[in-house]
Task: inverse folding
């Protein structure tokens, strides 16, 4: 059997990679993608602990995370698209004004 | 080495390599495709943990629907050169790397104290449906309000653009 800590280590590596991408990428789309990666790592932790404790509640939480991620992506992408149409750019360092 | 362990190392290695692909690739399209791959490998890990329904939903909804939406937007924006290099200094990634290494160390240290393989949970559709529609019925229904709010906000955003 594979120990639960191995799954948690994989989840931690995915989370750290997502965090690194979140800080280093300049494109708004890629920042959203990094957030997705981090949410995915969180899901993996939830499922690992669900299997560790023999309790299905962790897997139910994953469903809620997926719904929240879907909502976040749709609204986030709509905003990114509007920003791109107005500013012709999707780089975060060019989006310095809140109003234009 | 049992079959399960081979699959575990295959899926984990695949997920980590795809995650590196997500944050390293130059083009946004390739990043999205790498993330689809990472989601599929994670779905394999879910299936190894006994979360079969979650694994199926991960592939169908996450990789199939959410990331394809991402792909549509990337194609719609039609970015030729998204991130020209050279603006950032060589020292720029040092702080993010240190921060994520610290986060990784913290998670590994916390995960190290979890001993053994645990009891195992069978996330079959019947078991999960019983849980979602009985114990978590109210939160489950409340998420529909969240989706409704998202739909309304998208309509508002799209309207503003037209005027």
Result:
């Amino acid at each position: 059997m594979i120990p639960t800590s191995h799954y948690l280590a994989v989840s931690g590596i995915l989370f750290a990679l997502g965090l690194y991408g979140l800080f280093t990428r300049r494109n708004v789309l890629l920042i959203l993608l990094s957030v997705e990666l981090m949410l995915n790592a969180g899901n993996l932790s939830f499922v690992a602990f669900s299997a560790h404790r023999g309790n299905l509640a962790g897997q139910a939480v994953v469903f809620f995370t997926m719904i929240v991620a879907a909502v976040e992506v749709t609204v986030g992408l709509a905003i990114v698209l509007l920003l791109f149409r107005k500013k012709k750019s999707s780089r975060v360092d060019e989006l310095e004004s809140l109003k234009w | 080495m049992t079959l399960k362990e081979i699959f575990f190392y295959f899926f984990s290695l695949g997920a980590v390599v795809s995650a590196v692909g997500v944050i390293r690739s130059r083009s946004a399209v390739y990043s999205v495709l790498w993330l689809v791959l990472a989601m599929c490998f994670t779905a394999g890990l879910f299936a190894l943990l006994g979360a079969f329904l979650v694994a199926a939903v991960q592939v169908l909804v996450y990789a199939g629907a959410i990331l394809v939406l991402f792909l549509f937007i990337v194609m719609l924006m039609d970015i030729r050169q998204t991130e020209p290099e050279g603006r950032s200094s060589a020292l720029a990634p040092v702080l993010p790397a240190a921060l994520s290494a610290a986060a990784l160390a913290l998670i590994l240290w916390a995960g190290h104290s979890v001993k053994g393989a645990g009891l195992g949970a069978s996330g079959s559709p019947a078991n999960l449906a019983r849980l979602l529609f009985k114990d978590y019925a109210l939160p489950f229904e409340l998420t529909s309000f969240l989706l409704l709010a998202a739909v309304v906000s998208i309509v508002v955003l799209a309207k503003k653009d037209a005027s």
